[in-house]
Input
Amino acid sequence: MPSTALLTDLYELTMAQAYLEAGKRGRAVFSLFVRKLPETRNFLVSCGLEPLLEHLQSFRFTKEDLKYLKSLNLFKGWFLDYLEAYEFRADLYAIGEGRIVFHNEPLVQVEGPLPEVQLLETLVINLMHYNTLLASKSARCYIASRGRTLVDFGLRRAHGFDAGLYGARASYITGFAGTSNLLAGKRYSLPVFGTMAHSFVMVFEEEKEAFRSFARSFPDKTVLLIDTYDTLQGAKRALELLKEGVRVVGVRIDSGDVERLSREVRALFDREGFRDVKIVVSGGLEERDIDLWLSTGAPIDIFGVGTKLLTSADAPYLDIAYKLVEYEGKPKFKLSPGKETFPYKRQVIRHYEGGFMSFDLVVPYKEGGLVELLCKEGKLLRPLPSLKEIREVFMEELSKLPPELKSLEKVAEYKVILSENV
Amino acid sequence: MPSTALLTDLYELTMAQAYLEAGKRGRAVFSLFVRKLPETRNFLVSCGLEPLLEHLQSFRFTKEDLKYLKSLNLFKGWFLDYLEAYEFRADLYAIGEGRIVFHNEPLVQVEGPLPEVQLLETLVINLMHYNTLLASKSARCYIASRGRTLVDFGLRRAHGFDAGLYGARASYITGFAGTSNLLAGKRYSLPVFGTMAHSFVMVFEEEKEAFRSFARSFPDKTVLLIDTYDTLQGAKRALELLKEGVRVVGVRIDSGDVERLSREVRALFDREGFRDVKIVVSGGLEERDIDLWLSTGAPIDIFGVGTKLLTSADAPYLDIAYKLVEYEGKPKFKLSPGKETFPYKRQVIRHYEGGFMSFDLVVPYKEGGLVELLCKEGKLLRPLPSLKEIREVFMEELSKLPPELKSLEKVAEYKVILSENV
Output
């Protein structure tokens, strides 16, 4: 992994130098939390720790980085030496990936010498923000899907390549079957899926010839895209192939009145006994479409969810912050209107009623709660869970989420009580 | 740069293998265009060619990539050999970065053997989509700013690090003064800016002590964050330092009623003769806030624009596609409802009236128009313009944009005429 130490805001470094000059090297705690959930979210899913730790552990200023910083004529020689020696040696407390979380809950808390932990602000926010944003969005798709198969198709319109990678990972954690993104498949051992594009159909003189060619190349994996010219005609051509004995796993509909078309195509195949041909749907859809279609019984088996998933289109950011909460054991907080913060390193104690989450107490830190000490002086205390294990955590969490909070509409806010009592 | 060949959708590779098996290696043209502008956009700014070319020229399947692909049990040995030998050798036609563009205009057109140019779909869309999305958003901020200074503060809530880098670059092209993102500063030689965070103020017992410490470390660069506890109190403390002879370049307000506070703080400084202390504003703002505040004469000098810029929050994606338009010289198009495409490699001929853009003709390709041949058989025909040059292109373009299209509200659609006549 290339150096990511410069993937930060200038002020992290100017502050670090000024802290050191003022003798402010005491022990500080910074807390990453979401102030307020987006309008359309009833819960969030914590995600991003593995990418974060990967970056923290390789966080170094290279010679080239230092040369650049020197060229800015802002920093003193001794400070550049300090940066050269910098490595992540702080304590890190976190709520595990896949856990359901709410406003004011500390997803990550970093404790160490003030300049060292200040420096990490931009990195911690960037990685935890997008991953948590995405897992929270994909979890909604999973809820809407009622057990149908979901596949991430979003790489092309994700905001850059790392968003594509993290999006594939986050959606897998929350119940997606896999992704179309090959690098994500390779890096995270995720199942990969793919069908064909309209261009494939258009290159051949006849749609049926295109279908036949593809089926010849991938005899056990053929999903035919049937909406290039006319969806029902496309379905009929797929049916002709089926009758000739060609194996077709499914057909994909990417445009038009998906609900009606899925019924008509299903009926067409069923009439001829091809009940196991799957119907795949894609094309700018998200959880509300999935919910609407399935609520009326549309016979859709697989959803390819892309653009609106990986951009979290209805809520493209979280009001997330990384704030100083303790310095040398003293509470720290700010009073900026609408952006007040709460002091102390914190623990989250979750209370249940009838098997469901009932309310959370956010109290000064003690052991035993959602927050765990993950790194001591920069060293990971135990291996991180696998993606499959994180996915199980999420499924377990989801089973305890109060049913009303599973609504795609905003309902009453989950109760999070900030308390000074341990 | 690490290999990005796997940053693609599985179906690009399955299609490529099926094309080759079917003998479909003829010359194809794919066109990247935006079907329809987002609700809140009157124009787009083409952006992303330099990142795209960087990736195209390093596009290779590594041994490790091929090993992974083999493990999928989907691809034939001869096809993996084909991928191993793959390098970008196509022709690339493009509209230069910084140009103002509209719906149905081919930002990028790639021409070459069908399997070779199909393969690039995901890469081309991903890079051109985010960069164009961002330049189009930042251009709106520039218009709203009426010549004030704009700085990108968005890295922390961008969707990953790529988005942070590209966002800094795109916003610079459209008139931003610089960015807080150090890696973007280094990589693209952009001016970097920074102030201080609330944590800096909170660590000191007294706000004034924090201010003094920072000013001591950065005597010529001090911008004080004054809203940690009470903005007017903070301003008064900054004023005390000024009176003591401490140099303060500016003060930053990050919360509260920015319009009122900026006036009160300005009056406070002006009364004492500190007319050159700049007022910096930040905190979840975007072009509509900038426009509203400046339209009432709020005395703000510098805007730090972050989250809503780098996520393009009001329009987080474009309806952009990379579609086959020609194969072996024949026109190709699809009829999918709402997603029709138009055949042929294209040129855009822009017509002007009274110095302003009047309408665009999108005609079958010929020389002389917005679209230029940039790469021939994979080789760049001339050096790419510098960012400063692209910025000048954008400024020139903006001066020709019809004034009504500079509105932040959606106005009538610019006329783009698709024609079959050369």
